[in-house]
Amino acid sequence: MNKITYHKEGDYYIPNLYLENENYKHDYHIGRYGNLRLHYLKEHKKAEYTIMLMKGNLRKHIVDTDIEANNRLDILIKQFKEKENITEELKANNQLEWVQAMNNVKNRAEEIIYSELIYK
User: Fold this and answer.
1) CA-CA distance, 103 to 88, in Å (whole number)?
2) What is the pTM for the complete model shown?
3) Distance CA 63, CA 28 (A)
4) Where are the beta strands (DSSP E) in the chain?
5) DSSP secondary-structure letter at 14?
6) pLDDT in tens, 6-29
């Protein structure tokens, strides 16, 4: 059970609230999807953002979201490529069609990630 301590400033008692040091994967560079999730929480889920910030698990959530989004992006792109038969042979024979198909695959994979991980 956590106890809240107070200090007196003038006639008021102010709680001593401090954020714990967030050392979760401190050396991990938060990428695109982690930053998108952080921005979304700040702008649209302020209560959820504040709770995570106060509990000290905001960085863990952002880092985990970024890692999961990148992993899922790789998996989805691979699955879409196999399903739609986008191969290195297509790349060698018709580069423009290959680029078009890969852009389409990447955009669809990102839409899935946005709806399932980032903007939920």
Assistant:
1) 15
2) 0.78
3) 8
4) 6-9, 12-15
5) E
6) 889 999 998 887 655 556 677 889
Residue 106 included in any domain: yes
Mention every residue, 6+ apart, whose C-beta is less than 8 A from residue 69: 33, 34, 37, 113, 117, 118
Best CA proximity match to 37, nearest among 27, 28, 26, 48: 48
Task: Print the domain residue range for 98.
Answer: 29-118
What are the tens digits of pLDDT across the range 23-57? 667 788 999 999 999 999 999 999 999 999 888 89
Residue with tokens 């680029």: 99
Domain count, the chain: 1
**3-state DSSP assignment of residue 4:** coil
Side chain identity, residue 54: M
